[in-house]
Amino acid sequence: MTLQIDVLTLFPAMLAGPLDESIPGRAIARGLVSVRVRDLREWGIGRHRSVDDAPYGGGAGMVLRPEPVGDALAALRRSGSTVILMDPAGEPFRQSIADELATREHLVILCPRYEGVDERIRSLVDREISIGDYILSGGEIPALVVIDAVVRLVPGVIEEASIAEESFAHGLLEYPQYTRPAVYRAMGVPEILTSGDHGAVARWRHAEALRRTRERRPDLLAARGLSEDERRMLAEIDGIDTEDAKRRRRRG
Ligand code: JF5
After folding, report:
1. Which of 142, 162, 143 is CA-nearest to residue 152?
2. Which residues, listed in sequence order, are joined to residue 91 by a DSSP beta bridge?
3. Which of 8, 125, 136, 145 gets mutated to test ligand 1 (max ligand atoms within 8 A of its CB)?
4. Nearest to 85 by CA among 42, 52, 117
5. How many domains does the chain have?
6. Can you tell me the distance from the alpha carbon of 79 to that of 113, in angstroms, rounded to the nearest whole number?
7. Pairing state of beta strands 52-53 and 63-64?
8. Is the pLDDT of residue 59 over 90?
9. Which of 62, 130, 162, 228 is least surrounded by Cβ atoms within 10 Å, i.e. has the fewest?
10. Average pLDDT over residues 31-45
11. pLDDT, position 249
């Protein structure tokens, strides 16, 4: 089943290039995903196809008028659609949201410009998503972020094993990766990776992912928790001699 995505924007050209490239480009070319970019001005008001107006109460900038947005959403949405507003005041985007969106049949993504949409438009959308705490000039780049994260989860787009292996799938940051040459600017490669011992490599990677996550994103570890085995791995990294390690040494 093809995931269909409609993007509603005043700057359609901002979407075309990125969606032509790499994994999204290939997914679209293979028909696994279909993306249509629609110009909000198609639903603009009057001879000038007006889409914005000054804010009630005064203040700087312009606000997207509700009628063009409402009409566009009415035209694009159907039963089974999920309508998304990109907005810094939305729910922080995370992998679990991407997982959920990848199961939908039709996404409509609304990209605000200027000072944002008329407040009454919020009642017409299913979810509001933020990609982070910074100000952008429009919702197009956030929409591309969401599309990229979602498209790669659509069955057949990338190898199933790659998704399963990905660190966020386990709630951890990725383990360190190395490729040739064996020595680069006097920096070597951990010996275990060239040992041919696949079990040892897997354990090392798991331990390094834990180490890195604890160091850089303790919030992720706190949210996820640690198994008994993982506590032992971190203790070993810290050089703490656990009763368990002593027992294992005695047994040889
Ligand atoms: C925008 C008014 C929205 O969509 C975003 C955004 C999402 N996360 N972080 C920023 O910004 C576009 C511009 C103006 C509302």
Report:
1. 162
2. 129
3. 136
4. 117
5. 2
6. 27
7. antiparallel
8. yes
9. 228
10. 98
11. 80
> Is 83 in contact with 125 (CB distance < 8 Å)?
yes
Which range marks the domain in which residue 243 is found? 183-251
156 and 192 fall within a common domain: no
> If you take atom 2 of ligand 1, which residue's CA is the nearest one?
116
Tokens of 65: 């008028």
Could you read off the pLDDT of 68-101 as tens digits, one per residue? 999 999 999 999 999 999 999 999 999 999 999 9
**Which of ligand 1's atoms lies nearest the C-alpha of 114?**
14
Are both 187 and 107 inside the same structural domain? no
Question: Ligand 1 mean position to 116 CA, how many Å?
Answer: 8
Residue 138 CA to ligand 1 center (angstroms) comes to: 5
The reply to whether ligand 1 has any atom less than 6 angstroms from the CB of 117 is no
Whether residue 213 sits in one domain with residue 130: no
- CATH number for position 192: 1.10.1270.20
Do residues 127 and 98 make contact, with C-beta atoms less than 8 angstroms apart? no
Atom of ligand 1 nearest to the CA of 133: 9
Is there a single domain that holds both residue 7 and residue 131?
yes
Residue 139 forms part of a structural domain:
yes
